[in-house]
Design goal:
This protein is mostly beta strands. Strands 2, 4, 5, 6, 9, 10 and 11 form a 7-stranded mixed β-sheet that branches. A hairpin with a 4-residue loop joins strand 7 and strand 8. The radius of gyration is 14 Å and the shape is elongated. The termini are far apart.
Length: 120
């Protein structure tokens, strides 16, 4: 059974930092890409950052220069280093993985989310 487990969320003051982690387990095949998304009540889930298996990354304009996504392929773990946090970064952050089984079937998985609250 595939599981994506996020950790590292919490309450932080504006200007502070947090590091989110996402550990993937139960993957049969390979992970093509992993990403972080976030959602606030009443709004659509939005992409924060994404990293391909080869290391290519892309970021939402709102987080460029402040957030850094990274990945440990050997451990199937992804990280999001968030610096200079702003109140508008407050959201439920979700881990996502695009996978492909050994026989070529694509799949997409979501974690349960971790809350990030930026407030003084």
């Amino acid at each position: 059974q595939v599981q994506l487990v996020e950790s590292g969320g919490g309450l932080v003051q504006p200007g502070g930092s947090l590091r989110l982690s996402c550990a993937a387990s139960g993957i049969i095949g390979r992970i093509l890409a992993m990403g972080w998304y976030r959602q606030v009540p009443g709004k659509q889930r939005e992409l924060v950052a994404r990293i391909m298996s080869g290391g290519t990354t892309n970021y939402a304009d709102s987080v460029k220069g402040r957030f850094t996504i990274s990945r440990d392929n050997a451990e199937n773990t992804m990280y999001l280093q968030m610096n200079s946090l702003k109140p508008e970064d407050t959201a439920l952050y979700y881990c996502n993985a695009d996978t492909q089984t050994y026989w070529g079937a694509p799949n997409n998985y979501w974690g349960q989310g971790t809350q990030v609250t930026v407030s003084s």
